[in-house]
């Protein structure tokens, strides 16, 4: 059994600390152990990142870009190997895991270029003897706290723009999926990224989170995970007035208008709902189908879902792997039971299988008082409800504290634009069940978070704006 180590200031360490098992959710077997770090290790990481900051920030953008390109190329060479590590610790099907590695690597190559385009401005002054220059500077040391559902992409989506902007980073991956993160950091070291620029610690999330929140040397905290933890981090970060980005929970509505191409809509639900067994914050959580097409849509969706194969992610042909843990299974079970007790019809699936597997499930006749219609599911359950008109479906879609992703399927261009604009969501998939991509600004409205990741917007999160007023 491999004993993994943390990486701080260019050194791998931690084998003398208490160890935590990393469990394969498909087999319930330990696949390695990681050190249980805490306050002390979090502080060491901050010390290292702080010491490395000045030199890294002073480099040219092109120099930093070259390191990112090397890192990208090493990840590309090992994409299958990293995918296997991810499937073993997280459970997602291998083809999806390798797809995530490519997606994750897309952030590195994109920001390797975007770092070269951090432009300033010259603003006309009010006096003839003055000039005003605006420039962007790296915010400083960045703390990145990442979840288990995307063990690679949530790291690179934060670390690549931070490094490109001239920041150094300390990372805490989810305890359930640290091995992919260690592999990425190992390849960053191999790419020659200087010591202290990337540091990673594992262990007590509350201690590490507190140490970083309270440390005034950390100038930016970037987090993906639950809304509850995001709120705690935001409160804790207030005392040192850090910049903060939060990618939190979602509850995506999927709207199927009367004139939608139903085959495209069904493919869209399958893509957005069953990716990662339903465990993404942009997964469809509730489907609104126009009442006139309800029967045919449900029939087509049930047929498509019946073709999905549930199994261990490392087996060929698996579409849906295990859920991450027992709590996740119980949440889905509770939502199915609740829906059935309130008049929902389970027309497909509905049962838990052995281990951490659960059948893909379709519940029709869903009503707004069912748990699955307002509480994030994070599992392969699709509740379907009907609507009569555009105004109704927009109101019901927006009636949520979340505002991350929404999906609309229609062939009417004018209606498509009007609905997209009316939705209080940061991402709208218009006839598109898979809108995520490195060059677009991923992020949510309302309690789904703050800030954007990806695209040129994503690098702004790691920059401070300064103006220099010159008088002569
Ligand atoms: N937006 C998204 O992509 C995600 C949303 N979720 C939602 O959240 C629910 C719960 O998932 P869960 O894994 O518990 O999510 P969490 O928010 O608890 O975990 C996400 C990350 O935050 C860390 N963390 C947890 N508590 C603290 C803390 N007090 N201070 C600092 N860091 C902390 C975790 O560490 P550790 O692993 O060590 O606990 C992990 O690295 C899911 O069912 C889903 O609804 C979950 C994951 C991702
Ligand atoms: O927060 C998540 O669930 C991860 C982001 C998924 C995506 O990038 O599509």
Automatic annotation (TrEMBL):
> Does the keyword Oxidoreductase feature in the UniProt annotation?
yes
Which CDD domains does the record associate with it?
A: ALDH_F5_SSADH_GabD (cd07103)
Matches recorded under Pfam families: Aldedh
> What domain of life is recorded for the organism?
Bacteria
Instruction: Say yes or no: keyword Disulfide bond present.
Output: no
Q: Which GO terms describe its molecular function?
A: oxidoreductase activity
| Gene3D superfamilies to which the protein is assigned, alphabetical | Aldehyde Dehydrogenase, Chain A, domain 1, Aldehyde Dehydrogenase, Chain A, domain 2
- Domain Aldehyde dehydrogenase, residue spans: 15-468
Q: Which UniProt keywords apply?
A: Oxidoreductase
Quote the InterPro entries the UniProt record gives: Ald_DH/histidinol_DH, Ald_DH_C, Ald_DH_CS_CYS, Ald_DH_N, Aldehyde_DH_dom, Aldehyde_DH_NAD(P), Aldehyde_DH_Superfamily, Succ_semiAld_DH
Family statement drawn from the similarity comment of this UniProt entry: Belongs to the aldehyde dehydrogenase family.
* Name of the protein in question: Aldehyde dehydrogenase
Q: Which organism is it from?
A: Oceanobacillus aidingensis
Top-down, what is the taxonomic lineage of the species of origin? Bacteria, Bacillati, Bacillota, Bacilli, Bacillales
